[in-house]
Amino acid sequence: MLKPNPRQEKVLELVQRQGYVSVEALSQRFGVTPQTVRRDINQLSDMGLVERHHGGAGVTSSVQNVAYSTRQVLCLDEKRRIATILAEHIPDHASLFINIGTTTEEAAKALLNRNGLRIITNNLNVAGIMCSNPDFEVIVAGGVVRSRDKGIIGEPTIDLISQFKVDVGIIGISGIDSDGILLDFDYREVRVAQAIIENSRRVFLVADHTKFGRNAMVRLGQIDQVSALFTDRSPPAPIRDLLEKHSVEIFVAP
């Protein structure tokens, strides 16, 4: 299972903070050989968390997300723990939006023991998971199906979502900038997520710690549009301060 080790986590934090870090600087900082640093960078690159450069590592591309098959296993334990604490805050007989993402798919699995849920989703994976509970009503949005992850996007998707007002919108995200801007890669997917936010009484954001400071080019919204953040690690200070300023609840999975 893909998961950075503790030193790699620190390498990732440095890259996200500085934009680029050389092999030499990392070798000196952690007291390891350049070969060890290069191995760390290669592994982080394989996970899609950094970009390999000659002599160092930089932030990932802002225009292309990690492959879906990689995201399915990346930080899977963390996503499952996030999903578990999220499920504790969803009551029986609630109405929900659930959007595209591997973390929201884990949330769907964690909600299977609830009763009487009504779910509107633009994620065929979520629909397949949740329709296995015969007590649920699952509504699938129309639109264009992306073959890579079975997400549904487009104007028909937005039109259907706009016909509802639900108790909770559960959304995933590709990146959370230090200034609280929520970021993603696909403009059409972002427009659907914005419609979910607009038509939800409460918005629950699910994001593992690798999303803090991660780069993506499309602006989805601001962290103050979220009711609660469910994550596996306390956010960096700038993001944590914004959450507190705007009274956004933080739930950190044990």
How would you describe this protein?
- The chain starts with 5 loop residues before the first helix and ends with a strand.
- It has 2 domains: 6-58, Winged helix-like DNA-binding domain superfamily/Winged helix DNA-binding domain (Arc Repressor Mutant, subunit A); 69-252, Rossmann fold, CATH 3.40.50.1360.
- It has helices spanning 6-18, 23-30, 34-46, 68-73, 76-87, 102-110, 124-130, 155-161, 187-198, 237-245, and strands at 20-22, 51-53, 56-58, 95-98, 118-121, 137-140, 144-145, 152-153, 166-171, 175-176, 181-184, 200-206, 218-222, 228-231, 249-252.
- It has 10 helices and 15 strands.
- Strand 5, helix 7 (124-130) and strand 6 form a beta-alpha-beta unit.
- The strands form 4 sheets. It has a 7-stranded parallel beta sheet with strand order 6-5-4-9-12-14-15, with helices on both faces. Strands 1-3-2 form a 3-stranded antiparallel beta sheet. The protein has a 3-stranded antiparallel beta sheet with strand order 10-11-13, with helices on one face.
- Helix content is 38%, strand content 22%.
- The protein has 254 residues and is of the alpha/beta class.
- The model has no long low-confidence stretch (mean pLDDT 91).
Provide a short characterization of the protein structure.
With 254 residues, the chain is an alpha/beta fold.
Question: Main attributes?
Answer:
single chain; 254 residues; alpha/beta; Arc Repressor Mutant, subunit A; Rossmann fold; 38% helix
